[in-house]
Design goal:
485 residues
């Protein structure tokens, strides 16, 4: 994981929660900074910063020779107050996220294990044979191994964030370790299924594991948490950007979306850097860096004494600077977002349509027919996924998909590689027809399979384009097979 202020805060919160929940009592020694770094999958500097903050706030003592020890002394009533307050403030978000894990991640786990290298399976075997594995970090370690073959750092950031928000505090309560320990035979069973290449059995086992933890969290809230919900709960949040420079990228994306939607038409001039900074409430340097990035995308061109001019879409590719390292990273973000969507869209769309029924199917069908009339085939994937995401019954799915779909706009720079508009429309028309037909027949499984095929096609094209452009690492991502789930 990348070292950042955000990660330091998460690491600090995890350790503080363990102290407040009674996982560590007064005078107990905490793991070393190096051990915490390994357990939380963060850098040593990040772990050290978390320990120093705990020391500054009086929760621990920290010395070079002895290490870290808990300084505060909480009785059973105070510990229970901490637990009740913590979980009541997160009830909606935690139960919602738990219900979202299967559609968002089960297929990704399955594909990851199907394509796992022998050394990954060997590491899984060492993990379940490891004595005194610290729960829940053994779970985090085997999650990292499950997804490793996918080659997707964006996915891993989401898995880490979801784990720290949901599973880490849940397992920090000693009584809840029964749900972890009861699955002691889970890893050997998973490994056995991988070795025998029993892929249907593997998928069943992975789905059952996710469902088991979801039910455990639901039962925990029903049986243990009695405190009334506060007026304002703490939501689950996730950003597809690393925190340190997120504002610049978000601002650039906002401007790019405005250009794509015609707010700033081709040939028009953007407001000055100073005006944009004032309008959006960002610093002048943030506005300058955002415009520099959009220049690399080929969306704008700045000229002295003239201003910043919006370029026509068909000129984007020829005016893009694909050697810009920042822009290259954004293109890889888009590629990784597409892989996450390709791995989850079948389960997610089936989950949403099954939850919503005929009304949503009819609405989607009508809107897809309207989209076809606009003759913009290249926007089909974004259009369908955006409609689905907005209708999702779980906030976590809406949060994750809205972040992933933002990355589509970096494809602005690739427009010139896709051919004429007629050629593009001819490629996407069969997908539109098949999606509409499935909706009209209420064939949700058929719709989901076609959508998965469409997004895998988008991923294949993106990997091919980025490889042709010489973007380092573009071809290291795994492309899932059709009908993967």
């Amino acid at each position: 994981m990348e070292n950042s202020t955000e990660l330091r805060q998460v690491a600090y919160s995890v350790l503080l929660t363990q102290i407040q929940f009674g996982a560590y009592h007064c005078q107990d020694k905490l793991p070393t900074i190096e051990e915490t770094s390994t357990q939380l999958c963060v850098s040593v500097d990040t772990a050290r910063a978390a320990y120093l903050k705990l020391k500054e706030e009086g929760y621990i003592t920290l010395t070079k020779n002895i290490g870290a020890s808990v300084k505060v002394n909480y009785d059973a009533k105070k510990t229970e107050d901490f637990i009740q307050t913590f979980f009541s403030m997160r009830k909606t978000a935690m139960t919602d996220l738990a219900n979202s894990m299967q559609p968002l991640l089960s297929n990704a786990q399955w594909v990851g294990l199907k394509n796992a290298r022998p050394e990954t399976l060997a590491a899984l075997e060492r993990l379940f044979r490891k004595e005194n594995a610290v729960a829940p970090y053994a779970m985090l370690e085997h999650l990292n191994l499950k997804y490793s073959s996918l080659g997707n750092s964006l996915l891993m950031r989401f898995v880490w964030q979801a784990f720290m928000f949901l599973y880490d505090p849940f397992f920090a309560i000693k009584d809840n370790l029964q749900y972890f320990d009861s699955s002691a035979g889970y890893l050997p069973h998973i490994l056995s299924l991988c070795q025998s290449k029993d892929w249907p059995g593997l998928r069943t086992a992975l789905d059952a594991s996710v469902e088991r933890l979801s039910l455990a969290i639901s039962h925990f809230y029903e049986s243990r948490i009695t405190m009334p919900l506060p007026e304002k709960e703490i939501p689950f949040t996730w950003s597809s950007y690393k925190k340190s420079r997120q504002l610049c990228y978000s601002f650039a994306m906002e401007l790019l979306i405005s250009i794509s939607h015609g707010v700033y038409p081709a040939g028009s001039l953007l407001p000055s850097q100073k005006e944009l900074a004032e309008q959006k409430g960002v610093s002048l340097s943030t506005a300058r860096r955002a415009l520099e990035l959009l220049g690399s995308v080929g969306a704008i061109k700045s000229a002295r004494y003239v201003g910043t001019k919006v370029l026509p879409l068909h000129q984007a590719t020829e005016n893009s600077d694909f050697t810009n390292p920042v822009f290259q990273r954004r293109l890889l973000d888009m590629e990784e977002s597409l892989q996450m969507l390709a791995l989850s869209c079948k389960d997610v769309s089936l989950f949403i349509l099954s939850s919503s029924g005929p009304y949503l199917a009819g609405t989607l069908s009508r809107q897809l027919k309207g989209h076809m009339q606009r003759q913009r085939g290249e926007t089909l994937s974004h259009f369908v996924l955006d409609l689905l995401a907005k209708a999702a019954p779980c906030q976590a799915i809406r949060t994750v998909y809205s972040e992933l779909l933002l990355q589509f706009f970096w494809a602005y720079a690739l427009r010139g590689m896709k051919g004429s508009q007629n050629h593009i429309n001819a490629i996407y028309a069969p997908y539109s027809d098949a999606l509409i037909e499935s909706l009209e027949k209420m064939d949700f499984s058929g719709f989901s399979a076609v959508l998965e095929e469409l997004i895998i096609y988008e991923l294949c094209c993106t990997v091919s384009f980025l490889s042709q452009l010489g973007i380092p690492g573009a071809d290291s991502i795994l492309i899932p097979d059709k009908s993967t789930s």
